[in-house]
Design brief:
CATH topology: Mago nashi protein
Keywords: Signal
Radius of gyration: 24 Å
Distance between the termini: 86 Å
Number of strands: 9
Strand order of the largest sheet: 7-6-1-2-3-4-9
CATH architecture: 2-Layer Sandwich
CATH class: Alpha Beta
Helix content: 25-40%
Number of helices: 4
Shape: globular
Order of helices and strands: HEEEEHEEEEHEH
Strand content: 25-35%
Length: 171
């Protein structure tokens, strides 16, 4: 009888303990992400990515062209899990650059600029950026933002517009 009890005790101790799910990665706690990219006072494109990868992307205005009568295009799509992961990786690079002291070692003029916003753990964070800095911390900030922008913009441009209207109609 003792042998059976000892055997049962040994078997019980050999069973695997339940494994807890790993904590969510910091990147997975990112919700909505959005950007507005401007040049010379003109909004070249603006987009929003929801936490599930759903995208609304509006573009069409061009620098040096009268916006009245310009056709704006709205595209709706869903990023692939890989694309969404790349956007989140770009945000991690952005946050790393933002932790450095602000600074630009070399500037140019007339580069695109705008605002990049993301929600993480329910907190909205916004960063103004400019591509005028080509060396230093501010350049790394812009580079991370433009990496995310390129992913979303390329995916959107590969999708048919679902809505077209003139700039005048939008105002």
């Amino acid at each position: 009888m003792r042998l059976i009890g000892l055997a049962a005790l040994c078997l019980a101790s050999c069973t695997a303990a339940p494994v807890a799910d790993p904590p969510p990665s910091p990147a997975s706690s990112i919700g909505e992400v959005s950007a507005e990219v401007n040049s010379w006072g003109v909004t070249l494109r603006e987009w929003t990515v929801e936490g599930d990868g759903a995208v609304k992307h509006v573009s069409g205005l061009k620098v040096g062209v009268d916006p009245n009568g310009t056709m704006l295009e709205t595209r709706r799509l869903r990023l692939t899990p890989e694309q969404l992961g790349e956007v989140r990786t770009a945000i991690a690079s952005l946050k790393a650059a933002l932790s450095e002291p602000e600074g630009c070692n070399e500037k140019r003029t007339d580069g695109p600029y705008g605002t990049f916003t993301w929600v993480q753990n329910g907190t909205r964070q916004a960063v103004r950026f400019s591509a005028n800095c080509v060396a230093g911390r501010d350049s790394r900030v812009a580079s991370a933002i433009f990496h995310a922008d390129r992913i979303v913009d390329d995916a959107a441009k590969a999708t048919e517009a679902v809505e077209r209207h003139t700039y005048r109609e939008q105002r």
